[in-house]
């Protein structure tokens, strides 16, 4: 019984953190859908609409994901040739990277 109460307490403590993490990931997905999905595959199985746009699920094969933070902060200017300039705010960067991590 004591172990069950301890487990319940740990779950209750962790639940707000998980909910906040889910919100960050959801925000990142929404940003990816509105800013990136017209060219990039942003999910685990979809195909990129642009032939030179790397699927998000393959980004970690090419770059350390945390290294993308600086690129987002400075404005991504590399990628496929007709990639639009995209500069993100710190909370947007955190959310996008959190989402990208979920599809690796």
Task: Report on this structure.
By secondary structure, the protein is mainly α. Helix content is 56%, strand content 0%. The protein has a single domain (2-102), classed as Orthogonal Bundle (Cytochrome Bc1 Complex, Chain D, domain 2). It has helices at 2-35, 59-62, 68-74, 90-102. Helix 1 (2-35) crosses helix 4 and helix 3 runs antiparallel to helix 4. Residues 5-11 have low confidence and may be disordered.
Number of domains: 1
Give the end-to-end Cα distance, rounded to a whole number of Å.
39 Å
How many E-type strands?
0
| Multimeric status of the protein | single chain
Helix-strand pattern, N to C?
HHHH
Helix content range of the residues, please?
55-70%
Mean pLDDT: 82
CATH class: Mainly Alpha
Task: Give the percentage of residues in beta strands.
Answer: under 5%
Give me the Rg, rounded: 17 Å
Count of DSSP-assigned helices: 4
- Shape field: globular
SSE-based structural type? mainly alpha
CATH architecture: Orthogonal Bundle
Detail the topology: elements first, then pairings:
Layout: H1 2-35, H2 59-62, H3 68-74, H4 90-102
Pfam families: Cytochrom_C
Signal peptide: 1-19
Protein name: C-type cytochrome
